[in-house]
Structures
1.
Amino acid sequence: MWMLIQYILKKMALLAPVLVGTSVIAFALGVMSPGDPVDQVLNPNGNESYTQEEYDRMSARMGLDKPLHVQYINWVGNLLQGDLGRSFFTNKSIVDQMARRIPISARLAGLSMVFTVVLGVEGGVIMAVWKDRFLDHLLGACAVTALSVPGFWTAIMLIWLFAEKWKLLPTSGIASGIGYLLPAVTLALPSTGVCARLTRTAILDEIGRQYVTVAASKGLSRRQTVVCHAFGNALIPVVTYLGTHMAGILGGASIVETIFAVPGIGSYAISAVQSKDYYVVQAYVLFSGMVYVAVTILVDLLYMAVNPRIRRGEAGQ
Amino acid sequence: MNQDMEIKGLNVSFVDHGRETKVVTDVDATFSEGSITGLIGESGSGKSVLGMAILGLLPGSAKVKGTCLYQGRDLFSLPEKEMKKVRGTEIALIPQNPTESLNPIRTVGRQLVECVTAHEKSAKSRAGIRRAGIRRDELLGRFGFQDVGRINGSYSFELSGGMNQRVVSALGLMNCPKWVIADEPTKGLDSILRRQVYEVLKDIGRSEVRGMLVITHDITLAKALCDRLMVLYGGCVMEKGNAQAILEAPMHPYTRGLMDSLPEKGMRPIRRADRDKERCLAGCRFYPRCPWGEARCGTEMPPETTLLDGRTVRCFHYA
């Protein structure tokens, strides 16, 4: 157990520079982006005038009159105290907004992940077991279709079918829990296709290995050799893919959230970009960077669970 | 019941993109109860393919013709469901390439116990697993492991090649099979361990199993372990019969060459294949390298001739 904690701490230490880098990039994005934040605050509609004195006062209040490195340090300092500033437009605390929106995005990502893992891995196993037969070809075609159809098209088709035609599900919003269903499916479809194909290839790769033949020589059925032996080894590349995918959708599925009017972190970022609300964009970049780091650690732990070579090799040292 | 294994007219070929490559040609052999038969020959002579064909474990691209009678049934035409019951209990495999033969993400101990639990439902009970564990620890001990507990908890990548070799030897014997096919059981072992392994195999071959097939190119092992020998070259049986007789007085030019190439016989290599003769695919497989070759050797496959001492030789010289 101690070994495990040490391992996690070591991983976190390695990832610390990544976090620092992300924060610099996030901050720089706010500074470099076109438009003047002071002007944005004083003149949000573009038709109000202000004096230079007012401008300087606001600039000082926002801390923008100081040199860049001081601004950065102040920003990080506030950040560490849990303050990301306020949105120019709504004047609401960004941290509060994000705290409200993150669970929504997380729920959406989680549900979509469940679809991807269950259908993708299952589909891949079925395709591998029925290799070159009808079922393999059928599912293979489904997988390619799923991964190549763009999300917005899927979204429109799903809304048309389930909401307009059959009136089974709401068109948008998450007023009821069932509202998560369509966005989650839309989000899951391409990754399910990729996951199924990846699982199929990985399993077939493993089936060709000698330990599977030896397992068969013990008297195990073909199904048992696949499930008990090949599958565990085949999971290793699949876990890698699912990890990066999870990080991507946790950071907000902007398009899908916008189409289905899901008030998650992704649609927040989109609206912030549209209205040049740079503090929000800064916060969003920082958040998605942190998610990546956290998921990377999680994937490493999962790796250890499925791969004893890493468990014994790295944690055991 | 008669426990002999009788192979008739075995031909194995691999089909790859419509091209067929023959790897085993017209093998007839009887492996009789109570005997240890050695299959010797160089790499690529079809020894392992023969063993895997008996177990029905060749890849899907393999085409197997012929029959393999065992307990009144033809193993080659047995449905998979029945064949599954034969593997491990009736005929077990000691695989070659031990490190690749073990699943890298399962402990060695678990993979050994699985040989038993694969077969009986009752073996999956706690008592069954404990019994399998006792058998496993006893076997590992016999193969020279002192700290059995540590080995059981190890993964194949944590053990040396020689250790894995002994682990897979135990793996083949776990479920007390009637027949064992041992594919290169002494590869990668130093001479002390090699001796130990063939002592155990010999012991088991004599007392615990009905018969054993040892696939090897280790002639010393064949000498120490086997009663009967089958010499393969290019997928054909060149000579078969009593092991001692063949090793002391080899008849077939290939067997002679093989013996002459041993260190104690002066290490004279078999001569290189003759380019022109290599194109003669219809005749004897050894013809391109044979010192006695005649014209008809290149066009006709010599028949198997039984000699006075009971051995069979496939050579026109004795026909």
Note: The two ends of chain B are 36 Å apart (CA to CA).
2.
Amino acid sequence: MRFAIFIIAFYVHCGFSSSVTWAEEPIDFGAQVRPILSDRCFHCHGPDAKNQDSSFRMDSEEALLEAIDRSDLAASEMLMRIHSDDPDAVMPPPDSNRTLSAAEKTILEQWILQGAAYEKHWAFECPKRPEVPQIDAVATTANWDRSTIEAWSSNPIDAFVATKLVANDLHPSPPADMDVLLRRSSLTLTGLLPSATTHQSDNSTSQSAQSTQLDIAIDALLESDAFAERQTLLWLDAARYADTDGYQNDYERHNWPWRDWVIAAYRDNMPFDQFIIEQIAGDMLPDATDMQRLASAFNRNHRQNAESGALAAEYRVENVVDRVETTATVFLGLTMGCARCHDHKYDPLSQKEFFRMYAYFNNIGEKGVGKGVDANPSMKITSPLQIVDDERLARLRQADLAMERDEAKFQQRFKTWIKRMQAVARTNLKGAQSKAKSAAGVTELGKAGAEAATEVEIKEGKADADSDLEQYQKLKKQHRKFLALPKLNDNQKKKLNAHFLTLDPLRRELKAELDSALKDFRDHGDRWAQVMIMRERDGNPEPAYLLQRGQYDQPDKSEALSRGVPEVLLKESQDQPTTRLELARWLVSRDNPLTARVIVNRIWRDHFGTGLVKSTGDFGVQGEVPSHPELLDWLAVEFVESGWDLRAMHRLILTSQTFRQSSKMSAEQHAVDPNNRMLARGPRYRADGFTIRDIALQASGLLNPELGGPAVKPYQPKGLWEVVAADKGTRYRTSTGDSLYRKSMYSYWKRAVNPPRQSIFDAGGRESCSVDVRRTNTPLQALVLMNDQTFIEAARALAETTLRANLASDDQCIADVYRRAIARPIDESTMSVLGESLIYFREHFSTQPSEAEKLLSVGEKRADKTLDMVEYAALTAVAHIVLNLDEFVTIE
Amino acid sequence: MNENQLKTQACLLPTRRHFFGQSATGIGVAALASLLGGDAVAGVNDGSNGPLNANGALKEYHHPPKAKRVIYLFQSGAPSQIELFDHKPALQKNEGSDLRDFVDMKHRITGMTAGQKSFPIAGTRYKFESMGDSGIELCNELLPHISGLADDMCLIRSMHTEAINHDPAITFFQTGHQLAGRPSIGSWLHYGLGSMNDNLPTFIAMVSRGTGRPNCQPLYDRLWGSGFLPSTHAGVKLMSIGDPVLYLGNPTGIDATARRRMLDDLAKLNRKKLDEFGDPEINTRIEQYELAYRMQTSVPELIDFSDEPQHVLDAYGPDVQKRGSYAYNCLLARRLAERDVRFIQLFHMGWDQHVTLPKQLPGQCRDTDQATAALMNDLKQRGLLEDTLVVWGGEFGRTSYCQGKLDATTYGRDHHAKCFSLWLSGAGVKRGHVHGATDDFCYDITEDPVDVHDLHATILHLLGIDHERLTYRFQGRYFRLTDVFGKVIRDILS
């Protein structure tokens, strides 16, 4: 049993590492010991020394040696502490809610007895390119057949993976069929099925011919717009992109041109270091272009509070904190947010360092509260995906600028106007009051009375007829009522202002020109929008202080903090980056130990379903140890040395034999490695909700491939927004026509009420940065696929396409439906089940033709009335089964 | 790995049949996940009590639970404690005087009144009375029915919170943190204790709109979201429009027989896939379709009130048949409690009386008073109050000074975080009991302060959970509903 416990520990702490956990085998400090120390001990003996009862620390070699006696290992205090029965001596203590299992104690014991070798945390040391292992000899001894060894010898990825497989007595799985691989590659690269022409592939040609064919197909996928869109979608989650502000009333914003910027960058295979620099500090680049400034919107996708009464100082801090946390998570894989209130409990990140990072991001002169669209800094810009006529754009800019320049003067004119109108109102009021008094004996005239009296006065036309009076008389009753009040509140002013906009001649002229320029612009299919961006303030930077307990109103003013990145990540001789631009450049420098690893790990995850480091957002000591550390480092260095060539990295992974294995799982594999961390088989996992909807639309022929632009609103159940919104006016207006069938990445993302289809399939809420992928399997997901009109309509359109092809037999129809949806040929047993299904539904609908008609009426797109309704409905029902299949929603 | 190791490894795993019966989300996998180092790290068995349903992260209760389930009646917008639960004659006596003459006003206030030149004290316009044997003073003018429950009530007058704006405050109440991203109370319970019902979600949220202030503060779906917990644990919102559960109804043209046939054929094909690929997720998917199918029956049956006797319907008041009303949701809450749904949460909007309080508040009270009392009585009669915890309250309190000009009909109150009232009733809490007190000006707490974490710790305690030991590891840290705070309010436990 003791042995069995070892094996468990081995999973718990290493994921799956090659080092077999025999007691006699050397213990690996980084993979086996530090995770235990961190998880069970650091909370009280870790880096957050200020908030710990004990001065004894365990987060460095030097500190540990206080409890470990290297000259007499067996007498080390740590050994006594972990084995003690005395509740006052045992560690962890009983009241800590932390315990060590027997296996963990043994690991610690063996490690100490073996000499207590220490090493620094792997992720904080810069990656060096490891040598690619030669697998020939080892694989031969492990009885791999010749052709497998050969196949696994060319791509370095395979060499690393193979070495580990051999060390663990595992055999690779055979390659999957060509069409399976094409579908798999297409789904992970583009989130779409391979196009109809490419999945007519032939499984019968030779292995190498197929492989070449696949390589060519992958190149084409990498060049496609769909690839750029898919990569953008993944980036949107990390960048917490949304179409609304996120707090309380959740106002709309329009940062979508930034999304288009990301698409364009991926489409052009922008080197990833440049991609990062422009997004972190595009606004600070010398002679920054509009597009580079637009890129900086990355750091303005945070939420923005416009709740009335919210304090600007409080939410300005939240915005800046969000930038620090996002930057740390997305690029460094660090949970820096933990150091906001106190020093990090596990990683060497102090609270002071958190606020030194903060100092890079607090200097843009933002307000902190108010709607996102009004939240400076911002810029008006067109989409980078559009080629806009220079002259038209210049006219628009000019018209817009003229409006902007007139704004202050206009407000002045408004004030004057209000005074004049109030004067008229008062004159009227006085007259009316005396009249009302004498007539009705009213001693106290309320506001309503004043209004009524004014009404009388005007009708009688007794006041002098000058232009002010004329204007006044033309005002709406409500406006006159306001003007009669002793004081105007903001809302009343707003309403009057809106009205004055229509009266002021200059404003009208400017507005007319702007409207006309905009119309001209839009008529040519061009769009422009106000986007929240970064813009560094002139002059001295905003000072930054440590905020005690992370509270916005508790700055420690005794020390102004200079900008800086965490010391642990900085080489000894290296200077601190002093500006946001320098920070951006440091992020992608060769001296940064994390960025390249973090990025390639996520790319890996996007294909295999799990990263080499499973905790994609945490590369700190509490993060998971990499399953293949050498491979991760090799990929990171390769990525940097390729010039941060993203496409090349994807190609490298997709052309590996590791990726191309069959994903069938034997009982033995499941027993040994249920989560496939050793990669003895290909990936198999459920696609995300975006992909599932998109491929249903694609299979049906409904998918609208339009690239970029503002969000669209696909079908969504009625009332979702309305029942929780503040104002009943907040309605979801479903798009119409082709816009209904855009890719899901363009679906309107309201933070208060996420698109339900996406949430049900585990999408994050885009409130804050998220780089983790969740995959649940729930009845609500089944209900979406069973009943959402999206999938009913798609099934019907799919059936329609097949029926229009005038195929000769049921079997051919079913095969066609299946191939369009699953992108490979149907097998016999599936055919037989679906064949019976078709017969059943044909019978079912022929006895109930009205049901057929109802089914065919689902969705906005009209059914083809020329088709036989019964056949059409029956094949729709069959197509709908196909869209519900496990293999439809699964990347395999 | 050598052969011996493989064998040992295989011994640790259950039989093949068992293995295929496990899902990534449901029964079995929690156990497997903790065995193999999954993300779930939960409380430890302290051997003190009985077993739990196998589908939660906790293997055993930390101590014997008093409550099996919770009905949380969230009054969104922040009902005025001064008008309803915390009678302050001193305010009436000093009506119109500046509050600063009596208290230091050290607490931060929102931007809505921060700029006011004066802070005129506003007393309540409504009558309070000592109610029941317990003699708790309540406003029976506005809450005639709820006041009648005084002897069942455990009233906390000393609640306080950190946030002064709705969004962070309500997020704090729901998740223990002011910013979005953490799991809600119901999600924690679902995660820890699992489900007691195979045919309905474990955590259900329902929303109703106040008639006192129809154009009110909004809500957001994340309030019942699962945060960083798997979305399996998210609350399911019962809709008042369309399908009660999203996508529940068959599409037009697909009747029950066609649906059954579709599911049978689907299951056949998915089982074939399972045989071929051996991926247990496929088996889970087959089970989820069957569960979805069962929900298609159990949910309509749930919302079909035709089996309710007239006197029960009458007790909940005239709105009970109106879908999406608070009364309707209250009756649904009882029906859900009967079906052992673990966490049932109602949100009634519109309690944000900044101005014209006398116009708005009576409407809010009318919406909720009778139905709340009916729900309580209904639970009592059926013996459900024995093991159900009921909570009634908002996200903060309201100021004792007037927002804007003080006027008998137009007065209103801004947000006040540092003292407010909330009541509990039912399983495990004292009856006819008042906990905590505030000063004469309802500005500060004078006795037994209770913060939001304490309330959370107490709710978990009543359900048999030590709040310090229900944790979930996310980004390297063990998160709890109560963060690093919270003390069980021992004084209110029965």
Note: The mean pLDDT of chain B is 89.
